[in-house]
Amino acid sequence: MDGCTVKVVDADRVAAVHERMPPAEDLTDTADVFGLLADPNRLRLLVALLDGELCVCDLAAVTGQSESAVSHALRLLRAHRIVAARRAGRMAYYRLEDPHVRMLLDLALAHTEHTDALHPEREGTT
Amino acid sequence: MDGCTVKVVDADRVAAVHERMPPAEDLTDTADVFGLLADPNRLRLLVALLDGELCVCDLAAVTGQSESAVSHALRLLRAHRIVAARRAGRMAYYRLEDPHVRMLLDLALAHTEHTDALHPEREGTT
DNA sequence: CTCTCATCTGAAGAGCTGTTCATATGAGCA
DNA sequence: TGCTCATATGAACAGCTCTTCAGATGAGAG
User: Fold this and answer.
1) How far apart are CA A41 and CA A49, in angstroms?
2) Are A56 and A65 in contact (CB under 8 A)?
3) A67 contacts B10? CB cut-off 8 A
4) Which candidate among A61, B22, B64, B79 keeps its CA 20 to 30 Å from the CA of A21?
């Protein structure tokens, strides 16, 4: 049932790694950020904002989503302070606010571009 | 209903940004990778593997998950070639195989550590 | 060959996520 | 003041995800 819960093969390594493990809070936080980047449409929005601010209208046009979907997505991103809104009359201009996320985006996109043959979706060992 | 679908505020910007937008395939791929990093337990596994290979047993111990959960998670990560398995008898030693993911992890964790007061989970503009 | 143990797998259920539709808000304009 | 348009919001539903439980696989020991 438990299998290995009791025994540990490399106790020292386990202890050391466990020591270095970031606190649960940090991991949750990080997973959260990754989660926000884990949607193609949200990704499109953020990529669109890499170059500067855009209104909801234009974001919908650029990313090919309904305005409602865009608004919902922006709401989420705003709640996590990844984007920020500037109001001009009835328009709302959004911009990428989190430099950390910008870095992650840059890094991820740079690598994806170079990764031509990586749509495996299959087993590696079995 | 559509609201803005027809009109675009800054047509030039929209065209330019749309031009620079990576192909859908790349975005899906990237979102996919982020999705794999979007779970605290998977994150724990990957962080544990940053220092070198570990068997399923020890991974379960270090990350505090059931072996079954770990196995399922590793299967997923393996399918995307993020980790690789080495077999030694009935043991399976896993290691982090994707340097790109390693970079993302390093970057993300480095920043999360410095981000003491960033558990907002609330509105930014409203 | 049989038994044990580490790992893997499949099925199933609970919960989360993203989209849509309908409607609300609030600014500018006539 | 009343209309229109950009954006925001809420409810609801479909689809995906993660965990667990039960059992399968395959290697080593006797």
Assistant:
1) 13
2) no
3) no
4) B79
The domain defined by A27-114 folds into Arc Repressor Mutant, subunit A (1.10.10)
pLDDT at position B122 is: 42
Using the predicted structure, report yes or no on whether residue A119 has a pLDDT greater than 60.
no
The confidence score (pLDDT) of residue B9 equals: 84
CA B48/CA B70 separation, integer angstroms: 12
> Nucleotides on strand D with an atom closer than 7 A to protein CB?
5-11, 17-23, 26-28
Tell me the Ramachandran region of residue A91: left when phi exceeds 0, alpha when psi lies from -120 to 50, beta otherwise: beta
Task: Determine the Cα–Cα distance for residues A109 and B66; give it in Å rounded to an integer.
Answer: 34
pTM: 0.89
Alpha-carbon gap: B28 to the closest alpha carbon of chain A (Å): 5
Over residues A42-84, the pLDDT tens digits come to: 999 999 999 999 999 999 999 999 999 999 999 999 999 999 9
Tokens of B83: 């980790």
Name the residues in B47-86 having a C-beta closer than 7 Å to nucleic acid strand D: 65-66, 68-69, 72-73, 76
Q: Which fold has domain B27-113?
A: Arc Repressor Mutant, subunit A (1.10.10)
What CA dihedral angle connects A71, B33, A20 and B72, to 10 degrees? 110
Q: For chain A, which residues make up each domain, given as ranges?
A: 27-114
Structure tokens at A111: 């690598």
Count of residues making up chain A = 126
Contact B81 A40 (CB under 8 A): no
